[in-house]
């Protein structure tokens, strides 16, 4: 064995497969990331599974690991063996856990990406001090999870809760899930881009930096570009962020109405910019619940693990008994 290869039995690999990127990390028993690799998420079944095998091989070449956790943005069966449907991924009604266990030669734990991220925040973040709390993950899309008394709530068929695909606009923007008007089409990383393009198309603030950027390089209008320009004070980018905040607040209000949690943890890649929109989103949430001003509402906090929560959480699940 090479001298630089770790031999800790507590090391596991956590892989977070999102709609944009496949991120894999070697994680120790305390939840610390030791090593990390990232690839674009492939669009076909064979390419996706080849990418998983490839990235695990790279990390195993540098570390001795005991198991692999796979966090997937899609519907997982209640027994956590198969992926029923994943809006941004090619898997459809496919048995994944056992097949990848055979391919990788390591035990594989399969988990919904939001559940995995919530588990990371349950162990290492604000979820430690809450009895009933919800996780609201904002990335390429929206993921959700519910934790009660230290256990992940999965629902009867393993798909609960699905915040991102609640219909909020009848006949609204098309969604990769096949529906129209889903919440994640209005408040997610990809929604920032969609809203920016819609605002530009209507001629709003044509001299803004965001509009000028679009006309010179349309492909450069991304969620990250909107956030960066908003931080620079661009008026159109700030209006896009304000629209995002309104929709997020309405989504949080739905979570409050249905689940009545004591805490909502905001996670996902977009959460790292929560200083731009969280105050406005919480105000919108407070105004859109029944009995506003006359009932306790969940406190809303940003998770401590950011975009790494899914990798860390599923790696910890892979190294322990399922919660």
UniProtKB/TrEMBL annotation:
Q: InterPro entries per the record?
A: ATPase_NBD (IPR043129), ROK (IPR000600), ROK_cs (IPR049874)
Entry superkingdom: Bacteria
Documented EC number(s): 2.7.1.2
In the UniProt record, does the keyword Kinase occur?
Answer: yes
- Which GO MF term does the entry hold, naming one? glucokinase activity
Q: Which Pfam families match?
A: ROK (PF00480)
Record keywords: Kinase, Transferase
Under PROSITE patterns, the record lists: ROK
Q: Which PANTHER family match?
A: GLUCOKINASE, ROK (REPRESSOR, ORF, KINASE) FAMILY
What does the sequence similarity comment in the record state about its family?
Belongs to the ROK (NagC/XylR) family.
**The protein's name:** Transcriptional regulator/sugar kinase
